[in-house]
Amino acid sequence: MSLNFWLTLKPIIEILILAFIFYKILVFFQGTRAFQVLKGMTYLLVVFLVSQLLGLATLNWLLTKFFAIWILALVVIFQQEIKQGLARLGQGNLFNISLEESEVAAIIDELVDAVFILSDKKTGVLIAIEREAKLKTYIESGIMIDGLVSGELIQTIFKHDSPMHDGGVVVRGNRIVAASCLFPLSENQHLSKIIGTRHRAALGLTEQTDALALLVSEETGDISVACDGKFIPVTGPERLQNILKDLLMAHPAQEDK
Description:
single chain; alpha+beta; YojJ-like (1; seven-stranded mixed sheet; 7 strands; about 15% strand; elongated; disordered C terminus
């Protein structure tokens, strides 16, 4: 490989590597307030790479100094998003407990039946379903139950006169591990002011972990699923079953160590 050929190829390789890394960073922060800022930084990065290729020394120098300052600024401004993202990198096994597909389907049926019965009564519900990320911290904030998932147990927990109806329930595998658990509230500044604490807690939990959250609004009885910091509307039992099957049966479950 001649020296001239390498000098021509080198900046192209650098551009491809940097473009790939920046694309992964954008995907990493998608759905957060950092995403729009990083989109703007993408355009500046393109200009920076073009200036390198064309040998525009002054523009290249200015952009180099700019990026050096903004890297530090972004770490400070978006430390919460960075912390949330890094918390997801070491997550364990899907659905944590080894279950047959038929068992998962039976759990989904119990959840769907309970949620729609409580929806008809306009009873507020918040159920977190643990997947890869351990929810130990949130479990410890609640009341330990360790009972098999059943529609009757869920309805009992969320009755208005139950001491456990406030907060959320955590489901791990085929068991309801704890109730009355406290989840982190979403820090998304773009949420509507009318969204209540239960919905903010569902979003907050799914922003910081890969858990799913089932919700019933106490005001309207509307049902929704929260996943990755976003709401998925539910229009009927079949729709909810399909959502949960898609999200919980996507990969083979592995044994929890």
